Amino acid sequence: MPPRTGRHAVWPDRIRPEVIAAVQECGIEHPWAHQALAAEHALDGDSVVVATGTASGKSLAYLVPVLSTLLEGSRAPNGRGATALYLSPTKALAADQCRSVKELSQSLGTAVRPAVYDGDTPYEEREWVRQYANYVLTNPDMLHRGILPSHPRWSSFLKSLKYVVVDECHTYRGVFGSHVAQVLRRLRRVCARYGSSPVFLLASATAAEPAVAARRLTGLPVVEVADDASPRGELVFALWEPPLTELHGERGAPVRRTATAETADLLTDLTAQGVRSVAFVRSRRGAELISVIAQEKLAEVDRSLVRRVAAYRGGYLPEERRALERALHSGELLGLAATTALELGVDVSGLDAVVICGYPGTRASLWQQAGRAGRSGQGALAVLVARDDPLDTFLVHHPKALFDRPVESTVLDPDNPYVLAPHLCAAASELPLTEEDLELFGPACADVLPQLEAAKLLRRRTRAWHWTRRERAADLTDIRGGGGRPVQIVEEGTGRLLGTVDEAAAHSTVHEGAVHLHQGRTYLVRSLDLADSVALVEQADPPYSTVARDTTAVSVLETDTEIPWGAGRLCHGSVEVTNQVVSFLRRRLITGEVLGETKLDLPPRTLRTRAVWWTVTEDQLDEARIGPEILGGSLHAAEHASIGMLPLFATCDRWDIGGVSVPLHPDTLLPTVFVYDGHPGGAGFAERAFHTARAWLTATREAIASCECDAGCPSCIQSPKCGNGNDPLHKRGAVRLLTTLLREAPEPPEERARKGAAAEPDDRPGDSASASGHGAGGLTHGEAGDRGGG
């Protein structure tokens, strides 16, 4: 990708000269054009979103007007005539930003007083932050649980609040994004109570329609600044497909070398050559595994290099995270295997290479991660290592889908009643909820409020609704998880707390017999106590990793929309999903070879959510030459592959969706394939699938047809989490079935309209978790998204 030259501008003349001087002391003579424009909007009182590439100076674009305003406010009698609130999705990013603000504002003396306020802030410091800090850095969780419920203690800060900075706002998507949207509406309402109306300054990676997403997030009109004027060095981007091995997987399918093993090799080679590199990995376990393998291989070359490679992920203790961040900044660390806790966060400068282990789910995330290399305008290397799944394989063979398409837009739905209800309760406990407030929270309030009254959570007195319970309303929901309290992971011998895992993910990640990694050490789960939310583990060194398998059944509650596809139907509506983790596989490390399967006895979980489903008729099956003996395998194969491909069209990731296929479903009385949102009440992904169904299923058909295997493999129709052991699957039947279905698919109106603009649909990655059970019409196959926690 060729280099790009930068375009300079001048700061608006309303910026205080002391702030401009402080920026120049940091070596920045003139701003880029997009920075100056964003600062101009901020000073005019317009909420603005800056959506430009990584390392384009977004932080400075909002910091300069904020610091200038804080400086003005420092003249007030209490020294705090203006305040600003900064929100980041991760603690690491807030800590890093606090360092940057302190460095930048050094010459401004005590006029700017930044402070981090999060779960790690010692209690003795919290009172000082509330009384004296004028730039408070926190996260949406702390705003939801800590600041808003105790707003009277923050009254002097909120009264003077001029700016709210929402950093990395493209990460607020799906259910988490919908929760954050409601938290921001609660913040605006409490500010109004104290007479302030802050301007929102949002920073986003490049995204489609950033102003639209920012408006849905904040509920306010937002101006967009998306023309990136910063320079960029040349970037060499490699698409890397691991080689086939001699091994055979389930049903004799060919097996590729794992993306984890390839990434570890690349990180080892780069570190041995003194190249500063980060490998981004989807899972905590993957990050730990890659760092361990790289350290072992480096020990054979030069023992002094071993301590220069480490792993970084969420779930570490605060002091462990800070120490790793410092080592990376100083150059003491050469190679780092990291989860997205780092992608969002730390300003890692001076990297020479980025290795991305598996497609990260969206093109926005891909460019965000690749952009970490070559930060000071020098050339850099980015490598995308494909996992053995349908989406990654499709992308390395269809590079145009990565390089020639715009990034996707962000999907969030603040009107989801499961999201809205707890926030209406929290809002009512903060200040009684009036009729005038309802417009702020959206049209769905009219349906949700009577339900909250009936449940005796809210009571209406005269003109307002009041919270009736003794417990804290903010504890009704965990804005990152699927609800329920997190499961604590405790070392059996010592009682030491190693970390936590979301309740929703506990069944599939810390079941009895699961392998759990923490800081490069391997633990085996001895027991999972669901009643007390505790998993007991002991240190061990098994030569395998574990992956859970589950079974799923779906029943249709209500069909909202349906479109004829020839004789078949494409539908969207509400469903109830029953999912049960039934067993786990042990897979040999590095090769991925299956060593065995162990049954589990865990209770089923039910979920009411939204789904898209399609049916086919007897005539369509005849036309596709699909007899009863291959019907189950054809549907099952099409379902696996379609779940794998959906992230290219909706901003979901692999944990957000699941699916089921049934040769005869009791509700539709036809062969049916379902794909559903893995969150209560839905997250907008199934709806997106419904609206882009023709393009989505066309890509699915192409992914299966173009795979070079004979009868199906993990690159096309096999799923690692399939509770049926990937049986039955019929590759050629799936291609014929989709061909017949698509022949009669109507062109959606939005696609016809879009053809003029030659644009393509929305996207995000995913593979799926799979499952099986026995429904009324025979075999039910499901992939249940084992949703990752926050």
From TrEMBL:
Residues 744-754 have a biased composition (Basic and acidic residues). Gene3D superfamilies: P-loop containing nucleotide triphosphate hydrolases. One of its GO terms (biological process) is nucleotide-excision repair. It comes from the Bacteria. The keyword Ribosomal protein does not apply. Residues 39-225 form the Helicase ATP-binding domain. Residues 262-418 form the Helicase C-terminal domain. PANTHER family: ATP-DEPENDENT HELICASE HRQ1. This is DEAD/DEAH box helicase.
